[in-house]
Amino acid sequence: QVQLQESGPGLVKPSETLSLICSVSGDSISGSYWSWIRQPPGKGLEWIGYMYYSGSTTLNPSLRSRVTISLDMSKNQFSLNLSSVTAADTAVYYCARGNMNRLSAYYMDVWGKGTTVTVSS
Amino acid sequence: QSVLTQTPSTSGAPGQRVTISCSGSRSNIGRNTVNWYQQLPGMAPKLLIYSNNQRPSGVPDRFSGSKSGTSASLAISGLQSEDEAVYYCASWDDVLKEVFGGGTRLTVL
């Protein structure tokens, strides 16, 4: 059974960098599209981006300048860095496993439980 | 303002059939497939339908998806109290990448 677990600071100061880790069990990150999604309080879902196991990344254009996603094969983890945060980045952050079928259709089939990050001084 | 448009809320009585719609454009639903996610209260989203109409293993066949042109629909038949959740559609956009609808809150009366 594949499980994902987010971890990281629950409080980040404005202008600093938000850093989260997603630990994967039951599957190797040497495959799939390892994804990040967030959900501001009381609002809908916003896709942040993914890194393919080969190292290529695809990011939400609105966040691209501030986002870095990386993989750590040795630890079977992947991470999210979001720089220059503001209160608007306060959200529940989810990691997820993405897949593409033979028609190149992308979908996220396993999600972590999410971690709440608040941006405040 | 979400790129994909969903009705904010809908409701149905137990046993009934409800349909949730998702409207997009040529750059997303019109060219790419649609996925549906179910978010139960206080929980992470869960994949419900992928590639327009495919159910992951474990999802009951009461849930079905369809797509036509630049719109998609999720149908839930034999409505049950445990179906009360927020449902999100999602699709790949040629410019904006993965985009979600604003979500439809389903209330089981």
Briefly summarize what is shown.
Chain A has 121 residues and is an all-beta fold. Chain A is built from no helices and eleven strands.
SSE layout:
The complex is a heterodimer of chains A (121) and B (109).
Chain A lengths: L2 E5 L3 E2 L5 E8 L7 E7 L6 E7 L4 E3 L7 E6 L4 E6 L8 E10 L5 E6 L3 E5 L2
Parallel strand pairs in A: 2-11
Antiparallel strand pairs in A: 1-3, 3-8, 4-5, 4-9, 5-6, 7-8, 9-10, 9-11
Chain B lengths: L8 E4 L5 E6 L10 E6 L6 E4 L13 E6 L2 E6 L8 E9 L3 E4 L3 E5 L1
Parallel strand pairs in B: 1-9
Antiparallel strand pairs in B: 2-6, 3-4, 3-7, 5-6, 7-8, 7-9
Write a concise keyword list for the protein shown above.
heterodimer; A: 121 residues; mainly beta; seven-stranded mixed sheet; four-stranded antiparallel sheet; 0% helix; 54% strand; B: 109 residues; globular
Structure description:
The complex is a heterodimer of chains A (121) and B (109). Chain A has strands spanning 3-7, 11-12, 18-25, 33-39, 46-52, 57-59, 67-72, 77-82, 91-100, 106-111, 115-119. Chain A has 121 residues and is mainly beta. In chain A, strands 2, 4, 5, 6, 9, 10 and 11 form a seven-stranded mixed sheet that branches. Chain A starts with a strand and ends with a strand. The mean pLDDT of chain A is 95. With 109 residues, chain B is mostly beta strands. Helix content of chain B is 0%, strand content 46%. In chain B, strands 1, 3, 4, 7, 8 and 9 form a six-stranded mixed sheet that branches. Chain B has a three-stranded antiparallel sheet with strand order 2-6-5, with no helix packed on it. Chain B is globular and about 40 Å long. The model of chain B has no long low-confidence stretch (mean pLDDT 96). At the A-B interface, strand 5 and strand 10 of A face strand 7 and strand 8 of B.
